[in-house]
Amino acid sequence: MPTGKAAGTRCSGSNLSHSPSIIRRLSVIGPWVLVLPASLALLLLLVLPVAGTLMESFGNPKGIWENYRLFFSSSYNRAVLIRSFWIALQATAVSLVAGFFGAYMIANSRPGLKRVLLIVSVFPLLTGVVVRSFSWMAILGRNGIVNTALIQLGLIDQPLSLLFTQGAVIVGLAYLFTPLMILSLVGVLETIEDDLYLAAESLGASPFGVFRQVTLPLAVPGMIVGSVLVFTGSLATFVTPRLLGGEPQMTLATLLYQKAMISFDWEAANTIAAIMMAVTILCVFLMGWLVRRATSARVAQ
Amino acid sequence: MSSMVSLMRMAAFVTGIALPVFASAQEKLVISDWGYANDFLVPKVYEPFEKANNVKIVIETGGAPERLNKARIRGGVDIIYLTDKFSQIGIDQGAFDKIDASKLANFDELYDAAKHPQGDYGPAVTFGRYGIVYDKTRTATPITSWCDLWRPDFKGAIAMPGFNTTGGPSVVMMAAKCAGTDAFSDPDAAFRKMAELKPNIVKTFSSGSELTNLLSTGEAFIGLAQDYAFPAIKAANANIGWAELKEGDFAMMNTINIPANSKNKELALKFIDWQISKDIQQISSIALGGGQGPVNKNVELTPEQASRLVYGEKAVTSMQTNPYEKLLAVNADWESRWNTVFGQ
């Protein structure tokens, strides 16, 4: 838009009869014409289908909220909903801890090494979700690396059931999303100025004290952003719970697949999709609010 | 995930518009099948039919429920292969046309069990069975009954089909039988017995390939399997054998149907006739082995070939059957009971 305004101002001084108005008109319409194809594509391929999904979840002839009432009245669905949250929350906690240490190490290493470490930590993102989840089947399986190692060390004599458990799903999700956590944290940790550490140390803070009173509080915005990315991602991921979990680890995403593709129950599938969307949007808003609060608290300090 | 359903709808919409536009002069027959046997079916069954009838065959593959869903809602499918469970669902939904058997030249060559398995709808095209496979090196006492699945030494050993598969509800029926009752009259007892089975289940699966994977990696050493998957399972782990069960296996069959919204019904009928002909049945049974028991009486197999198949009417009628109409009537109730047992 600034282009249009600038062109308009430039032409207003001129007395030529037709061309300025055409130019002015073109410069007003031009940007709109340029964004039209992309907007149309987005509207047709994203906005309309999502709106359709939302509308259909309210489309039960018995009443607007009937589909939601049906969904929430089943104790099984409620259990799946709570389990999905619980699994996503645990995966977020695991990747927050793992990601923080990873990011801390990266942020404090030499520039050359830093680049290598960053690439290594983001490397898993270059392979597909299926491959990454499948690799955990090879690690956690009966004849997998963990069980074989434990048996050969003489710690156990029967393989442990690690696969198809909630723990396996959490580990798989944490592995999947920790790179996102690292990326969110590295940026924040890098901006903490060394002077702050020096000042804290000169005032007598122990290394742990520096970490607890300087590093941690300043990293809060990055932790929140990373956590929301991991949490919403874990909540929506389908492949990992499908491959690493069993029927007792049914999550919203796998339930949605089952309703849409196997039991033909598209009303229920639409409702689950709408619930997942609502949760994600809520999380994003919550994140914005928390980040603003954390930042303003810091400024106040 | 959230937009997947909508994307599917979008894709269906776009295809719906695009299909007529791109329709070429040559006639087109859209066949919907599982895809696992297409390396054989395409050159040996589909292409000869294309040549004989100057038609272009287009194949759509996928799992039974999603293909049925697509054929019914989006349309554009002329022939659909399904297990009898899913063709019964399609029939109940009004998705298929009845078949005029008098127009099928090869119809009289079919075994009676294959002629009208589900009323006047499509005939069966293969016979198969559903039973128990297990790694014979991992248990000293062989499995001889469905009730052996509850043995305490099988803790965490069994891969069982999920409820929404062809074989899932059969387990419930057997559970009731092992508890000395009937699943339809006493579902409480049946699912109490299913709850007792839970410790023995390592994973519920939804496709034959998933089962093959579980058995070949050793995650499970007992599987409830349909015989079409058996050659692949055997190839992955040679120690796995088919259990001889005193109650017998369950009879399974695949059917072929013409969706009600097909635009090419004459040709589709011709294809069904081709599919049940002696020659096609014979080469399919020999080449594909498990799960491809012939439905045409005139097919002759050597004892070696026949040993891998459900061969002959006696073999079919001696097995237990799945009363699909009854099962579909209790489907919602059983599904929620199943979820209560296995989903928590």
Q: What characteristics describe this protein?
A:
heterodimer, A: 301 residues, mainly alpha, MetI-like fold, 2 domains, 13 helices, 0% strand, globular, disordered N terminus, B: 344 residues, alpha/beta, D-Maltodextrin-Binding Protein, domain 2, 9-stranded mixed beta sheet, 10 strands, 42% helix
Give the SSE layout.
The complex is a heterodimer of chains A (301) and B (344).
Chain A: H1 2-12, H2 19-57, H3 66-73, H4 75-107, H5 111-122, H6 129-140, H7 145-152, H8 166-190, H9 194-202, H10 207-236, H11 239-244, H12 252-262, H13 266-300
Helix pairs in contact in A: 1-2, 2-13, 3-13, 4-8, 4-10, 6-8, 8-10, 9-10, 10-13, 12-13
Chain B: H1 4-22, E1 27-33, H2 38-53, E2 55-61, H3 64-73, E3 79-83, H4 84-92, H5 112-115, E4 117-120, E5 124-135, E6 158-161, H6 168-178, H7 187-197, E7 201-205, H8 208-216, E8 222-226, H9 230-236, E9 240-242, E10 250-257, H10 265-275, H11 278-288, H12 303-306, H13 313-317, H14 324-329, H15 331-342
Parallel strand pairs in B: 1-2, 1-3, 6-7, 6-8
Antiparallel strand pairs in B: 3-10, 5-8, 5-9, 5-10
Helix pairs in contact in B: 2-11, 6-7, 7-15, 8-9
